[in-house]
Amino acid sequence: MLDIQKIRKDFPILHREVNGKPLIYFDNAATSQTPQQVIDCIVDYYSRYNANIHRGVHTLSQEATDAYEEARIKIQQHFNAAKPYEMILTSGTTDSINLVANGFSSLLKKGDEIIVSALEHHSNIVPWQMLCEHTGAILKVIPMFENGKLDMDAYVSLLNENTKLVFCNHVSNALGSINPIEFIIEKAHEVNAAVLIDGAQASPHIKADVQALDVDFYVASAHKICGPTGVGLLYGKEAWLNKLPPYKGGGEMIDQVTFEKTTYAGLPHKFEAGTPNICGVIAFGAALDYMNDIGFEAIASYEHELLEYATEKLLAVGDVTIYGTEDKVAVISFNIGNIHPYDIGTIIDKLGIAVRTGHHCAQPIMDFYKIPGTVRASFSFYNTKEEIDTFIEAIKKAKMMLS
Amino acid sequence: MTIQEIQNEIVDEFAMFDDWMQRYEYMIDLGKSLPLIDENLKKDENLIKGCQSKVWVHGEMENDKLVFTADSDAIITKGIIAILIRAFSNQHPSAIIEANTNFIDKIGLKEHLSPTRANGLVSMIKQLKLYAVAYQTQLN
Q1: A358/B52 Cβ within 8 A
Q2: Which residues on chain B are in Cβ contact (under 8 Å) with A357?
Q3: A361 given a catalytic annotation
Q4: For residue range A239-258, what is the model confidence (pLDDT) as tens digits?
Q5: Domain spanning A39-292: which CATH class is it, in words?
């Protein structure tokens, strides 16, 4: 059992007011809040050992380098990568995806095929479209069903010897549905295609084991897992990372430089040009420590309880449509009658409640359901049933005002 | 009435409300009472970019006055555009160009004025003024 009141004390932001009401933060799928332990870590870094890493011989630089590399190991262990250098530290999920897409531009040829799912964040569709334009490869899409699940029969029929890469999110950001990535990976490997899984939405709820999954690439962002913004990871199997060319040129990623030729540094530095977000990476390590101390099983089980409670209460409001209904994390994407999600979001914000409204950067999904968007309430382990009760009252009020 | 006089009138109306709920309920009513726009005017050229909800605005000259019609798929947004239309429609383009928008502040909608705000109030005002500039150029 989680001691929620104790956990809530760790998050200073949960004690502020919005529009004169206590904040109820149900926009955790957009970004999670930051516990004091992580804030302290950031303050400690800038107060005691702020220095550039991997190059200084002085004490501060050594301390910062050690802390940075220790954080890499924490991240490696969290996702169970075989080697620390298989964890490339980036500015976030989008950066990580672009790194892989950019790398594949030198590996693909005309007629090769890339498969993406219909559930993708549209900003994540763009790198593949660009890659296809550049290489002449063809983009194929795994279709979805009404309940938010991907059509696995259709997926299998898309696979063939031309398939080089499959990209899918672990959990859909718009619906919260958990995709069958084990099956997706296994089937892709039967045709020797690489698989990149976007774990941005899964990572706050599910501890992914990249070796057990046998996934080729896995990406995520620190800010969804109680860490700071501007930090993310790209896990890649060593063999794959060695195949991909460097993404950005700059300091840190080089071995020898002359004007005639440059040789690149080994992993992970080949992909980490320039001064990284040192403080952010160290704080990400602290965030993973914080989450692991609570325990992902306890988190998942409590969040599931919140999800079931909120779903039941919300459906009782009447005229509610929930999108994505099976196998999902603690996210409810919904509409009430024909009320525009923006209107609901505006009214409940006045009542101190933060939810996301709109198309959630997943326009193809909204087109599928023929709706302008949804209201998305996403829960975290620091939320409570009392907050859900207040949220339901706010939804009732909004419904009354807007109907 | 001049734009300024209409704006003062709107400010007076909003001053009667005690809290945000009444203000929003009034805006929702204004949205509901906005005359229906001709369906064929709901085309992409009339769509204002930068809004989370869809907003269509059309302007055309009647004699020397610029008349606006508008619609939105979200009711609060529709209320906001209804207020703007009440203030700016049926006026000479030059008056629309010169008009200030301080009244937005006074009716408690300042929070909607931020350029990054998803409802695009700033984009709506810009669009109305762009129409005025375009028609003023024709008049000249």
Answers
A1: yes
A2: 52, 118
A3: yes
A4: 999 999 888 777 767 777 77
A5: alpha beta
